[in-house]
Design goal:
This protein is of the alpha/beta class. The protein has one domain: 5'-nuclease (Rossmann fold, 3-Layer(aba) Sandwich), CATH 3.40.50. The protein is about 50% helix and about 10% strand. It contains 8 helices and 5 strands. A 5-stranded parallel sheet has the order 3-2-1-4-5. Strand 4, helix 7 and strand 5 form a beta-alpha-beta unit. Helix 5 crosses helix 6. The longest helix has 13 residues. The chain starts with a strand and ends with a helix. The model has no long low-confidence stretch (mean pLDDT about 95).
Length: about 150
């Protein structure tokens, strides 16, 4: 199992979505058991403040010792700007670029998301990682929860 997994808001909210609930909840269960650490950013926390209380409560299912909080740093802001400059993503979706940059700068094992348009998208992943290599960062593994959870 991947040690540290950056989890965006779509995965947390996915626990309450019939289409994504099984895989999302399976990943939350992995975090609850301490098999991996859920990594959430200040950006994710800001997005969760705008979500319904039932969505906000999901993160609290994970014991504090299995959570890691990271900030949107100036380094991550600069990297997210590089993604936009390179055309990996448009300016209108700068928050998605920031999620990618935060995860990259923090060197997580993977980022998980249900955002197929701007994050879990083969063309965009290649573009993000092209920028990452050019800027001296490691490539970022990007998956859906289905791809990182082991099913019995």
């Amino acid at each position: 199992m991947i040690e540290r997994i950056y989890t965006d808001t779509s995965v947390i909210g996915g626990c309450l979505d019939p289409e994504f609930s099984e895989a999302s909840q399976a990943l939350i269960d992995v975090f609850e058991r301490g098999e991996s650490t859920v990594v959430v950013s200040s950006l994710t926390m800001l997005e969760l403040k705008l979500a319904p209380s039932a969505v906000r409560a999901i993160l609290h299912e994970v014991p504090e010792e299995h959570r890691e909080y990271i900030e949107l740093t100036e380094e991550a802001r600069a990297l997210s700007a590089r993604y936009i400059e390179a055309g990996a993503i448009g300016q209108a979706h700068s928050a998605d670029a920031q999620h990618i940059a935060i995860a990259t700068v923090s060197q997580v094992g993977a980022l998980v998301s249900w955002n197929f348009k701007h994050i879990v998208n083969a063309r965009r992943i290649r573009a993000y990682n092209l920028v990452n290599r050019r800027e001296g960062y490691l490539e970022l593994e990007i998956f859906t929860p289905r791809e990182v959870v082991t099913y019995d």
